Amino acid sequence: MDKAKLGKRFEGKVAIVTASTQGIGFSIAERLGLEGASVVISSRKQQNVDEAAEKLRAKGIEVLAVVCHVSNAQQRKNLIGKTIQKYGKIDVVVSNAAVNPSLDPILKIQNSILDKLWEINVKSTILLLKDVAPYLQKGSSVVLISSLVGYNPPPTMAMYGVTKTAVLGLTKALASEMAPNTRVNCVVPGLVPTHFTAFLTNNDAAREKVEGNKLIRRCGTTEDMAAAAAFLASDEASYITGENLVLAGGVSSRL
C-alpha cells in the first residue's frame, strides 16, 4: 500500500479495531492509520499485539496495543479505559472479532460451541458498544464486519452464518438507536484468503470453484475490505448509515 497515494481522512481521529493483529482486522487498522488515525489494536495474546504494533509503527502509524479478549468484560473495559487515558476520545470503532470453532450442522453443535459463537460473534459487539458509547464523538462511526454467508448459511458453516445474519440485523438496529450522532454500517466480505478461511483457500480445487463463481475472477483481499471499511468510517460516507455493504466480486447476495 502506497502511503503517498492515500489521503488523510482520519487525521486527528482515534479508532479502535478489535481482533486486529492479522487478516482483515490488521489491514483495516493499517489503512486507518496510514490515513492519519491513532489506532488502537487488540487481540487475545500479548505477543500478537506487540508484533502487529511493531509492523504498524514501522509505517509511521501511531498505535496503542492492548490485549483484549472481546468476551471478557474486564478486558473490554480496559481496552476502552486505556484508549481514553491516552487519547481522550473515540471516533471510530470497528468490531471485527469472530470465531467459527465447528463445522457441525446446527442441530448437532455442542451447547458450549453455540454459546461461544453467540458470545463472540454477536454479543461481544453489543457489550463493547455499550461501554464505548459514552465516549463516542459527534460524527463518529461504527463499522461491523459480517460475512456473505450471513445471507445464505452453507451446511459447513451454518451456525457461523446465522451469527453473521444477526450482525446484518444488528447493523440496522444500532444505526437507528445511535443516530444521529453516530453512524453504523457493516462490511460484508465474500471469501478472503486469511488464516480464518485457510480450510477453504488452501484447497486449490475449492478456491478455483469459488473464484469461478465471481464476476471478478478472484477472491477478495484484506486490503479490499480495509478500503471499504475506511470509506464507511470516513466523513465521505457521512450520509450513509444502516447499510450492509457486500464485497464479493459480483457473487449475488440480494437484489
Task: Write a structural description.
With 255 residues, this protein is of the alpha/beta class. The chain has one domain (13-189, 221-247): Rossmann fold, CATH 3.40.50. The protein has eight helices and seven strands, in the order E-H-E-H-E-H-E-H-E-H-E-H-H-H-E. It has helices at 23-34, 46-57, 73-87, 111-132, 158-178, 198-201, 204-212, 222-233, and strands spanning 14-17, 38-43, 63-67, 90-95, 136-145, 182-189, 244-247. A seven-stranded parallel sheet has the order 3-2-1-4-5-6-7, with helices on both faces. Helix 4 links the parallel strand 4 and strand 5. The longest helix has 22 residues, at 111-132. It is globular and about 45 Å long. The model has no long low-confidence stretch (mean pLDDT 92).
Q: Find the structural class using helix and strand composition.
A: alpha/beta
CATH fourth-tier homologous superfamily: NAD(P)-binding Rossmann-like Domain
The CATH architecture is: 3-Layer(aba) Sandwich
How many E strands? 7
Show unreliable segments: none
Number of separate domains? 1
Using the coordinates shown, work out and report the CATH topology: Rossmann fold
Number of helices: 8
The ordered string of helix (H) and strand (E) elements is: EHEHEHEHEHEHHHE
Average pLDDT metric: 92
Radius of gyration: 17 Å
Main beta sheet strand tally, sense and closure:
7 strands, parallel
Strand content: 15-25%
Measured distance between first and last alpha carbons: 33 Å
* CATH class annotation: Alpha Beta
Helix content: 40-55%
Shape: globular
Strand order of the largest sheet: 3-2-1-4-5-6-7
